[in-house]
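4.2 Preliminary Data

To establish feasibility before requesting continued support, the project team ran the inverse folding procedure on a target of 279 residues. The structure was first converted into the token representation described in Section 3, and no sequence information of any kind was made available to the design step. The complete token record follows.
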């Protein structure tokens, strides 16, 4: 969850040529050497800015080419001339980095192609994501529009500190287990905390986690029953170990890790988990 390793860029010029040349060899748009050089400069600036907006990402020299670059993304779709780029990027992760559970079927433009047409087919601007996350994010431009808040974190470029910042709050009301995730760490830098909180909120993750939590806990029922029979203390230790084990695979701020960590510290749950999940 949160971040993934970026794939190699591949041959950017070959991708560009494929995007702007029809199968019969005719040019959709004949890009001049100056435009091509400017586009490479934009790509380099994007990396240098860690994917954050910058005025020079839309230089005047690319005003004519921009609409063609924007439309070139159509070739990244299934059956398009750049469909292999799509397949390569989607194959890089089996879980959407925005939510940590959805199947990546879309490519999200971190900086939206409606504004940043130059970056429409740039691999580092294309984040594998599930459709609900992609649809919920829409055209968030970090920092450019107050309505967009601080923006989402960049799944390729964000350097996350090695601290626990995702916390799960456990409640039990009306005979049902309630779980609410929040960003909470005194050691987290304020700007980053704001982005992570915005991401939780914008993608409606607390609502969308509910079904995943039920499924996840029902898969753990047999083991939970066994350890709970031995005693609450051992059961709490077991949950803590499960959290550590999953942390090794998914990171310490994965939602499953935060959930198990919170459950292991919840005395009532460890004493009588059957009240919460019908063990
Ligand atoms: Zn997702």
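Position-by-position output of the design step:
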């Amino acid at each position: 969850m949160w971040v993934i390793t970026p794939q190699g860029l591949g041959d950017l010029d070959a991708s560009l040529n494929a995007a702007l040349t029809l199968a019969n060899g005719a040019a959709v748009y004949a890009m001049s050497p100056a435009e091509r050089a400017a586009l490479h400069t934009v790509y380099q600036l994007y990396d240098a800015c860690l994917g954050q907006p910058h005025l020079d990402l839309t230089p005047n020299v690319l005003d004519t080419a921009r609409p063609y670059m924007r439309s070139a993304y159509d070739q990244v779709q299934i059956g398009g001339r750049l469909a292999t780029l799509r397949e390569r990027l989607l194959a890089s992760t089996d879980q959407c980095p925005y939510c940590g559970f959805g199947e990546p079927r879309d490519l999200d433009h971190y900086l939206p192609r409606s504004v940043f047409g130059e970056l429409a087919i740039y691999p580092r601007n294309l984040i594998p994501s599930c459709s609900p996350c992609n649809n919920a994010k829409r055209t968030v431009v970090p920092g450019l529009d107050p309505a967009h808040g601080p923006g989402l974190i960049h799944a390729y470029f964000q350097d996350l500190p090695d601290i626990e910042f995702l916390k799960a709050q456990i409640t039990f009301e009306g005979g049902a287990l309630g779980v609410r995730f929040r960003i909470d760490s005194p050691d987290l830098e304020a700007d980053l905390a704001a982005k992570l909180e915005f991401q939780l909120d914008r993608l409606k993750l607390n609502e969308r986690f509910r079904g995943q939590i039920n499924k996840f806990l029902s898969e753990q029922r047999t083991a939970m029953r066994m350890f709970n029979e031995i005693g609450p203390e051992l059961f709490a230790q077991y949950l803590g170990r499960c959290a550590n084990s999953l942390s090794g695979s998914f990171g310490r701020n994965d939602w499953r890790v935060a959930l198990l960590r919170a459950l292991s510290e919840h005395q009532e749950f460890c004493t009588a988990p059957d009240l919460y999940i019908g063990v």
